[in-house]
Amino acid sequence: MAALLPPPHRIYLLRHAEAAWAEPGQRDFDRPLNQKGYGDAEIVADRAADKGYRPDILISSTALRCRDTAEAVHRAMDETLDMRFVDTLYNASVDTYLEIIDAQDVGAVMLVGHNPTMEQALQALIGHEAMASSLPSGFPTSGLAVIDYDASALTWRLIDFVID
């Protein structure tokens, strides 16, 4: 498990929603959400907002499908939500994801990114066994993991997983 220590005390890991297939000549980076993806992103963002989940900062990959997903969260949670778009999250390693989270001096951070790195980050935080029992089929598109730091056990725990 990762040795990140608070802050933050809460981490939200949001995998981008379902993307369209690349058009001829289109870069993978430029693929938007497909129709289902747009709907799923809105549903997950609304469900998270209804549960009172709100990060202090949202950090998203600059890939179009991540930006589209982040915008759904922005609309659902509050137009004043601090959003940042970071190029290095596209094709990043799990260490990069964790370093970006660890560098935030806030109570709650949300990362909007890509698989397999999103799944690897969750596993690094909560451990292989917890990951396997919580998400036996892996980290789905538009899935939102809510992870809290348990100071008494000095560990991160998955407290909720929001899906469409």
TrEMBL record:
Q: Per its UniProt record, what InterPro entries does this chain match?
A: His_Pase_superF_clade-1 (IPR013078), His_PPase_superfam (IPR029033)
Q: Which Pfam families match?
A: His_Phos_1 (PF00300)
In which domain of life is the source organism classified? Answer: Bacteria
> Which PANTHER family does the protein's record reference?
OS09G0287300 PROTEIN
**Protein name, as recorded:** Histidine phosphatase family protein
